[in-house]
Amino acid sequence: MSSSSRRAETSDPSAPLVLHVDILLLSALGVFTLFALPRAAIRLTRLSEWSRGLLFYSSAGPRRDRSPDADPPSDGGSRKSSVSVRAVNASLKPETTGTSCGSGTPPKHLRSWSAAFPGLSWLLGMQIRPGYSVGRLVLIYAYIGVILYAGLFHSNPFTNPARAGMVSVSQVPVVIVLGTKNNIVGTLVGQGYERLNYLHRAVGRMVILAINVHAISLLYDLVSAGRWSLVVTVPYLTWGLVALVCMDVLFLFSLNTFRQMFYHVFYVTHVIASILMMAAACMHSPEAQPYVLAAVGIYGLDRILRMVKTRVATARLRVIPELGMVHIEIPHINAGWRAGQHLRLKVLSLGMGIWGWTEPHPFTIASVSKSPRGDGLVLMCKKAGDWTTRLYSLAHKGMDGESASGKRVTVLIDGPYGGPGNTVLSSFSGAMIVAGGSGITYALSTVEELLETRAAGSSRARMVELVWSIQNHSALFPMVPLFSSYIERARSAAVTLQISVFYTRAQTEDLMQSLQILPPGLDLLPGRPHFERLLHDVVDRTTELCAESHENPSGVLVGACGPISLTEHAGKVVRNLDRQTFKKVGGVELQEENFAW
Ligand SMILES: Cc1cc2nc3c(=O)[nH]c(=O)nc-3n(C[C@H](O)[C@H](O)[C@H](O)COP(=O)(O)OP(=O)(O)OC[C@H]3O[C@@H](n4cnc5c(N)ncnc54)[C@H](O)[C@@H]3O)c2cc1C
């Protein structure tokens, strides 16, 4: 291709148009930020909220850091299972239960937009397909419309390939910012990065579509003119080809099926291909450079913040056989997160395999920050695939060989991330926390935070219902001491706590008898939870308790974490709640957490 045709391509008036598109997208972000502002302002009026949920640290205060041999030795025959259960019991059992309502002030409650406009929220929250509500699809299609306008306005993609190329590079900073863990967009709109992942994917697909249109059109011209060899002899064209290949690799390796099966390959190719693509785009066209530099700045900042948020610590691993989980406790990190946040964990042990120690995996924190019981940071990791199975074996071997307090390993944790955004859990009068299987980690930290803030006098919560759905009722067994301690603490903190555990598999009589003695407030029930009835009960109890203490109810929070079918069912129940029930409690708000993106 001659230099004049290249100049013609680069001096295309597309440049100001795509810049205007980015300004339009920034303006849309500004509007969403304005919507999020009232809640952010209310949250940040409390000084403590400025630093919560940003960095892990070790706080002075009660700390339960027993010596590794403090747990009683186990006996021969039934050694493995009894050690596991006893070890878990020991770690979950409270050592202090006496708490009283402190002198803090409860936070102000501001209704969310969804609670203020339930009709609109019902419509936008309707699920069209898993993970995609009407609201999300409206945003995606609006974005596609804007990009098609930018690509096609007064331009034919077959005669003006430069336009599609410009559209593609102009969206690179957008796709990068939406994919970062320390997400500026998420901070502005009060959402964790994982909730914006659907937008990251939608923007990524448009970038890939645009770059392919650009390339196909150019290649068609070259091939029809018999000059296709220029692609390898003219450097800027070769760089363009490299950028195209990187983009297509990104696309293929991000496909859902591939990502589910080979997450680590997806992750590594994603990082390498993105970096290479940005470098190649700069070499291909000078007009791409400002956009690529913006993207590099955003990506670089995210990487620096990740380093700042990374901690190396010693962790104790123990298996919980009944749950098929590994209980990880990091005693020396005990503060800095909010309930519902997660971290990325690397286990620096060759027991994880040759490459296993390099893989970061996300896990929700299952304990409360600055626990008055002295707990450190707790994770509970379920055996799901290769990496988690290796973790389980490592923990299991440790319990065979080392003391019953568990295997000690060095871990690298990066976080905290995600979480409730501008929602202040303790500003609600009631909460119904629904968990399925390993989603219990989210429920544990949330319930515990509600109890602790109430005990400190800085919560409005009067009624908390924890609903846990499990397959096998034996999964409840190792959790009984912890649940009992919650009930005890709820009593002294003047909160009504009800824990209902539902199991779906038929059980043998003798196993059932071992769970006969459950404390009041903890129920084990067969079948699936009836969310609608449970939610009505929570609303009624919350309203009554508020009336008894002459308070206006400030809403009920429904938090749901587990399989997507469970969280979507919970969401449907919230959206379909009748207006009268909704109004009398001051609104019902939904918070969904899924262990996938
Ligand atoms: C925000 C978040 C919080 C989570 N919290 C918990 C928790 O508290 N307890 C718990 O038991 N599980 C949790 N998970 C799930 C846990 O991260 C996966 O089960 C684990 O990473 C699977 O790894 P694997 O190699 O053993 O299984 P695989 O068979 O490789 O993967 C099983 C599934 O997990 C996904 N996955 C694998 N590796 C990753 C990764 N590095 N990042 C994201 N997804 C991955 C795969 O796409 C696949 O769908 C959470 C996941 C997310 C996204």
Automatic annotation (TrEMBL):
One Pfam family per UniProt: Ferric_reduct
Membrane topology annotation: Multi-pass membrane protein
An annotated GO BP: intracellular iron ion homeostasis
Reaction catalysed by this enzyme: 2 a Fe(II)-siderophore + NADP(+) + H(+) = 2 a Fe(III)-siderophore + NADPH
First and last residue of the signal peptide: none
The entry's keywords: Cell membrane, Electron transport, Glycoprotein, Ion transport, Membrane, Oxidoreductase, Transmembrane, Transmembrane helix, Transport
FAD-binding FR-type domain ranges (all copies): 300-423
Primary localization: membrane
Region ranges (Disordered): 61-106
GO cellular component, one term: plasma membrane
Subcellular location: Cell membrane
Record-level Gene Ontology MF annotations: ferric-chelate reductase (NADPH) activity
Compositional bias annotation for Low complexity: 96-105
Residue ranges of the TM segments: 17-37, 134-152, 172-190, 202-220, 236-255, 262-281
Enzymatic class: oxidoreductase
Family: Belongs to the ferric reductase (FRE) family.
Protein name stated in the entry: ferric-chelate reductase (NADPH)
